[in-house]
């Protein structure tokens, strides 16, 4: 454009110098000067508009840099990218960055919202040799589901959860009543007793987040129990076998709890949560349940008249759990102490007549840990082990001394294989299959949980 102006100006000067006395030449020179003056005024107006646009973009950039605190600890914007933002590169749209998170968006020059700027976009358009910071990948939904299942739903305001747990127990005992003759011959009765138990627990729980570090919850279980009893040696015959079963159901022990996130997960620190829970004896307790002798068993088989659905005592627990994300792997562990408080009962044992007294269930300590692997963005597989060591139960009859119940101590170790599925952003499916590793543990435990988050 500048070359065209120069050409017209030279032509007009030459025409004026060659034929200055000619009226036609003078008229042509006057028209050329007028056209040049008009074009010059247009160029000056267009340049003023461009300069006003540059000034406006500079003011917006300065305001955004001031609000975002671009400087120490903020995302470095290269000089070439700043030049492009100021309009020198034509049509632009700019995102405001604090660290690596986009927190605002300016409309583009046409009044619409331009595409969100990213650190990679800056790296491609910048002419600087400076390497920009890279944004870390977002946590996958599978890892988030494992974190919530182990540590709590601190990122959700309200959570409703429905669960189903099935446990199977199998116990066999050999009872000998007699004496050993000649160190090799047993004289007396041999009784083989075997009992199996199947327990299905349906529980509903609700969690509410008070702050981003504190949440409270409540859980209500309902139990369905089936027990089968078999006894050999009925009628003084080694081949004799007697069988009986009992079914029952009812509400279990209701509990409430609170979880506090002591430490948020950082680069070199795990996520640490403190848990506290209280349990009320709302279920049917096992004390004072009488035994019923099965007819035609020769008093060889007696079963309880009812099955317990609760412990019968108040309880509390305090624990700590830790979790560290090494995407796509998550490592977690926990340590919990269970305290059972002494309670009074009208009858302590199954013998006829009431035997009032106090019962103190044994306290317990539980520890465990595991690892989970994200299979894809929405599913994961976990392996874990938990072990609970329980003290003996102590009974004190009214007016009598305290006694420890033989065989009431327990060591329960379970190996668990779990899988989680994020069905949506608000619904997850948690499954666990446990296998008993000790004599006191259930043979099998299967758990299915479905939390709904809001």
Notable features of this structure?
4-stranded antiparallel β-sheet; 454 residues; 2 domains; 12-stranded antiparallel beta barrel
Fold and architecture overview:
- There is one protein chain.
- This protein folds into two domains: 2-125, no CATH class; 141-453, monomeric porin ompg (Porin).
- The chain is built from five helices and 21 strands.
- Helix 1 (2-18) runs antiparallel to helix 2 (23-68) and helix 2 (23-68) packs across helix 3.
- Strand 5 (214-232) and strand 6 (241-251) form a beta hairpin.
- Mean pLDDT is 77; it is low at 1-7, 13-21, 71-75, 81-137 and 176-182.
- The longest helix is centred in the N-terminal third of the chain and has 46 residues, at 23-68.
- It has a twelve-stranded antiparallel beta barrel with strand order 3-4-5-7-8-11-12-15-16-19-20-21.
- It has 454 residues and is α+β, with helices and mostly antiparallel strands.
- The chain starts with a helix and ends with a strand.
Q: Which architecture of the largest domain per CATH? A: Beta Barrel
Number of domains: 2
CATH fold group of the largest domain: Porin
Largest sheet entry? 12 strands, antiparallel, barrel
Give the % helix: 10-25%
**End-to-end C-alpha gap:** 63 Å
The CATH fourth-level homologous superfamily of the largest domain: monomeric porin ompg
Strands across the major sheet, in which order?
3-4-5-7-8-11-12-15-16-19-20-21
CATH uppermost class of the largest domain: Mainly Beta
- State mean pLDDT (0 to 100 scale): 77
> How large, in whole angstroms, is the Cα Rg?
41 Å
Shape: rod-shaped
Kindly estimate the percentage of residues that lie in beta strands according to DSSP: over 45%
**Structural class, please?**
alpha+beta
Number of strands: 21
Give, in order, the helices and strands. Answer: HHHEEHHEEEEEEEEEEEEEEEEEEE
Low-confidence stretches: 1-7, 13-21, 71-75, 81-137, 176-182
């Amino acid at each position: 454009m500048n070359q065209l102006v120069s050409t017209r100006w030279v032509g007009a000067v030459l025409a004026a110098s060659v034929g200055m006395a000619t009226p036609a030449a003078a008229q042509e020179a006057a028209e050329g000067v007028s056209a040049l003056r008009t074009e010059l005024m247009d160029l000056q107006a267009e340049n003023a508009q461009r300069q006003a646009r540059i000034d406006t973009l500079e003011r917006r950039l300065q305001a955004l840099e001031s609000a975002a605190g671009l400087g120490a600890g903020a995302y470095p914007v290269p000089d070439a990218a700043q030049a492009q933002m100021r309009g020198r590169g034509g049509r632009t749209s700019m995102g405001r960055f604090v660290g690596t998170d986009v927190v605002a968006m300016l409309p583009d020059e046409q009044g619409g919202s331009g595409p969100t700027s990213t650190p990679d976009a800056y790296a491609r358009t910048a002419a600087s040799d400076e390497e920009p910071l890279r944004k870390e990948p977002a946590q996958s939904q599978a890892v988030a589901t494992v974190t919530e299942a182990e540590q709590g739903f601190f990122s959700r305001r309200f959570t409703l959860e429905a669960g189903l747990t099935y446990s199977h127990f199998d116990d066999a005992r050999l009872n000998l009543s007699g004496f050993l003759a000649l160190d090799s011959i047993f004289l007396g009765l041999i009784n083989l007793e075997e009992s199996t138990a199947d327990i299905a627990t349906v529980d509903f729980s609700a969690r509410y987040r008070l702050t981003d570090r504190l949440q409270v919850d409540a859980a209500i279980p309902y139990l369905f129990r089936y027990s089968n009893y078999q006894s050999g040696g009925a009628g003084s015959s080694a081949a004799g076998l007697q069988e009986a079963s009992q079914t029952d159901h009812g509400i279990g022990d209701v509990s409430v709890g609170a979880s506090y996130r002591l430490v948020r997960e950082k680069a070199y620190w795990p996520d640490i949560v403190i848990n506290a829970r209280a349990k009320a004896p709302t279920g049917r307790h096992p004390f004072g349940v009488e035994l019923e002798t099965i007819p035609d068993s020769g008093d060889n088989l007696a079963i309880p008249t009812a099955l317990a659905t609760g412990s019968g005592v108040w309880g509390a627990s305090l624990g700590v759990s830790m979790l560290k994300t090494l995407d796509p792997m998550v490592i977690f562990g926990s340590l919990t102490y269970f305290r059972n408080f002494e309670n009074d009962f009208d009858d302590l044992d199954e013998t006829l007549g009431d035997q009032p007294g106090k019962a103190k269930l044994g306290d317990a300590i539980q520890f465990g840990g595991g690892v989970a692997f994200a299979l894809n963005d929405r599913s994961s597989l976990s392996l874990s082990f938990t072990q609970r060591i329980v003290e003996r139960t102590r009974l004190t009859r009214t007016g009598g001394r305290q006694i420890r119940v033989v065989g009431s101590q327990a060591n329960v170790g379970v190996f668990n294989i779990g899988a989680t599925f994020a069905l949506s952003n608000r619904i997850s499916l948690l499954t666990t299959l446990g296998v008993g590793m000790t004599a006191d543990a259930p043979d099998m435990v299967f758990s299915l949980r479905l939390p709904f988050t809001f």
